[in-house]
Amino acid sequence: MFWEKRLASWISSMRSQPALPLRVQLWNGRHFDLSSRTPEVTIRVPRASALAYLLNPSLANLGRAYVEGKLEVEGHLKAIIDVANALAHQALITKPQSFTRWLGSLSHTRHEDAAAIAYHYDVSNAFYAAFLDTGMVYSCAYFDTGEQDLATAQLKKIDHILTKIRVRPGDRLLDIGCGWGSLVMRAAEKFGAHCTGITLSKNQYELATERIRAAGLSDRISIRLEDYRDVSGRYDRITSVGMFEHVGLKNLSLYFSSIRKLLNDDGLVMNHGITTTDVLEGNARYGAGDFINSYVFPHGELPHISTVLKTMQEGGLETLDIENLRRHYARTCSLWAENFERNAVHIRSLVDERRYRIWRIYLAGCAHAFQHDWISLYQVVCGRSGRDANRLEWSRQYMYPTQ
What we know:
- This protein is α/β, with parallel strands linked by helices and 403 residues long.
- It folds into two domains: 2-94, Nonspecific Lipid-transfer Protein, Chain A, CATH 3.30.1050; 110-399, 3-Layer(aba) Sandwich (Rossmann fold).
- Helix content is 42%, strand content 18%.
- It is built from 15 helices and eleven strands.
- The strands form two sheets. It has a seven-stranded mixed β-sheet with strand order 7-6-5-8-9-11-10, with helices on both faces. Strands 2-1-3-4 form a four-stranded mixed β-sheet, covered by helices on one side.
- Helix 3 runs parallel beside helix 11 (288-295).
């Protein structure tokens, strides 16, 4: 049969590459091991029509097949991710694939951005609580020694951000994309700031408001359901943590110019966000971007760090400090993925099987992507451009106070 010839050819080509600890189990009981190593991962093909996903194993195809139940996979999650990436890499070597690049062509109207945020964030607060830390912080943690637990590292990240931008008692702080409120709560409690947080997620808005009320901070913190393009007023400090990935490449200059308009003359901004290491800013490796855009982050677009700096300048902001936290996000995502696996039974009671599978491979896949320099995380401190040099810091020593 035709499929038998194609499968035999594919297995032969894969066996000629570096050994993969993979077993392919067919619907008819036959199986094929791709190396002499003991299989760590088994891919079960329930019907002949599902072979199309396996024979063209981009990460988009493999991810789609797993999420939609076309293929079943067994093995430790990290091994599954490693094997999937190896399959996609080897397929690219033997048969180069052409991936589309959107190059900033996506539309980002207020309505579309709100819908995309709702899809990703309004799953349920209980869902996120099942794999995040107790503070519900959904962004890269900061492991200054590499040994902290997740909750400690997330608190250190928030303190690191607020220290970098020198938040002072009485400062008016705006947090764009405030999540469930952890940063503004810390800024008010420890640093004495008066804070405004904005989000497009109804779930985040409701829980953040509830947490702030319970902590007795309602007189110092306001949470609003609001698009960054609609914010007015002036602020001494502005933070954007894990938010500008949703802005869109074509809107970055607008985003940063909007921040500049809201910033006082001597104000400081922290932009903490994920970037691609692809200078063409197209699809992520081996089709991973197609999968993420379809299933995880609709309309999400990652800029290269060079684009971030360029559009900041176009928006009237001067870059003052840059720090790469890629290793920290690899660790963060690994811990999230471990929590997700540990709480799998509970998570499956909160969402349907499809969404469970999406997030299972998304979190582990992100850990792999950060680990292998496909994507990165930068903290960029900036202020209004054109300021006198005497108003700038001499060094970075104040960012790392002696503990």
